[in-house]
Amino acid sequence: xxxxxxxxxxxxxxxxxxxxxxxxxxxxxxxxxxxxxxxxxxxxxxxxxxxxxxxxxxxxxxxxxxxxxxxxxxxxxxxxxxxxxxxxxxxxxxxxxxxxxxxxxxxxxxxxxxxxxxxxxxxxxxxxxxxxxxxxxxxxxxxxxxxxxxxxxxxxxxxxxxxxxxxxxxxxxxxxxxxxxxxxxxxxxxxxxxxxxxxxxxxxxxxxxxxxxxxxxxxxxxxxxxxxxxxxxxxxxxxxxxxxxxxxxxxxxxxxxxxxxxxxxxxxxxxxxxxxxxxxxxxxxxxxxxxx
Length: 292
What we know:
The chain is of the alpha+beta class. It has eight helices and eight strands. Helix 1 (2-27) runs antiparallel to helix 4, helix 2 (38-48) crosses helix 3 (55-65) and helix 5 packs antiparallel against helix 7 (215-253).
């Protein structure tokens, strides 16, 4: 039982880490991070304000939007909220998130406006799908936990294989959600040419903005990897438990005496001479010998 116990213990640890990491990533708001160098933008505008060139009009528009549009501020994005760690755009109604950050909710409307293009519609539907896949993964992991506890208690390889199948399904759901999120991220940066997405930004803003994946995104992938490890350890533990049970049966089978039932039924019972004689050896107490 040593190997199976070790494998199932590792599976339990990996499963707990997987659920914790994905749950934290799902609830927090640091999937994407934008760092905007506002000082560099203002300095460029001040230097070019007196120059007569075609870019002057673009700089004037940037100056008007600098304090009102959220794309000119440092911000982070999650699945639910957009947060501003430092300055807040003028006129934006914000609230404090559980991490004490000023945030606004990301809206996924049920009724889509007619002026939305195909990419925007697809993006909203895909973001809903991501959230649904994560919720389904949490439900499957809960079922996996319940079946796994019962399977370990009963020491049943069949129940443990079922548990591993559930965890593998949860891993596929998490991986599918993350893959779709990457697809949405590609659409926002390479295909969608309207505000507030990257292709519609002024060139000055693009040059002074750093975009990066943040720790919530990394946690989500770490949790996905541990979910796969958990499934592998569960399958390995079930196989080890099945192997140990088979070896135990083979070891006990060596001490089982054969019963020749057919031969015994054909032989009549043996009775010694005399009505109540004892068929075994009898002793003479006055001597040191015995007879059969």
